[in-house]
């Protein structure tokens, strides 16, 4: 059987983001990648848009890939592993991006000494601006981790963390884009409450978030320093920030991330 470099079990949005990143960077060509997904619409995205062969049968991918990315929902992981267990080659490197699912669990469901690396990426990988946390399983070596870093750096930055910190990382950066999108929604709605037209408020909020993010990305100053530059003593920004601080926005975010971390642990049980 002919082999190929990279296989995806699950062809959802995150698998698409990873595939686009490695193709855009030149790390892999479309013909070096295959995927599987039970949903015809997702297979069509890979086949028609990315020119990547995509199958309904996950064992076709598992049997021939040098590297497998498990890109299924946490609730579907047990079933997915059961489907590919017999087909998976013992020398295949397995990457999991499922929230809450430990390397130890995946290792226990596959052949002994299977090399597993756990990764938590986020959706800005779609535009090459993602951040992924990487943790090695019991049998993965330094070369495996370096290869995984190359794959995920094709769509942004990476950090290595102990696996015990992955749920916390998931709460911060894995779920983090949703917090920023929600903030943009809330800013626009607040603008409408002050009398701005909805369309104007939407574009003002959106571009403010985009511009602030670009400034943060290009500046050598910390977020605190940048915030202070915008905040004139006794001015409008200070009045707004004092209101946010009185509402204890910092505590609200601590509680939100703690809830996300707890849910990650629950998904792994």
Textual characterization of the structure:
- The structure is a single chain.
- With 269 residues, the chain is of the alpha/beta class.
- It folds into two domains: 4-167, NAD(P)-binding Rossmann-like Domain (Rossmann fold), CATH 3.40.50.720; 176-267, ProC C-terminal domain-like fold.
- The protein contains twelve helices and eight strands.
- It has helices at 13-25, 40-49, 58-62, 77-84, 103-109, 142-153, 166-174, 176-193, 198-218, 223-230, 236-246, 249-267; strands at residues 4-9, 33-36, 53-55, 65-70, 93-96, 116-120, 130-136, 156-160.
- The chain has an eight-stranded mixed beta sheet with strand order 3-2-1-4-5-6-7-8, with helices on both faces.
Produce the secondary structure layout.
Layout: E1 4-9, H1 13-25, E2 33-36, H2 40-49, E3 53-55, H3 58-62, E4 65-70, H4 77-84, E5 93-96, H5 103-109, E6 116-120, E7 130-136, H6 142-153, E8 156-160, H7 166-174, H8 176-193, H9 198-218, H10 223-230, H11 236-246, H12 249-267
Parallel strand pairs: 1-2, 1-4, 2-3, 4-5, 5-6, 7-8
Antiparallel strand pairs: 6-7
Helix pairs in contact: 7-12, 8-9
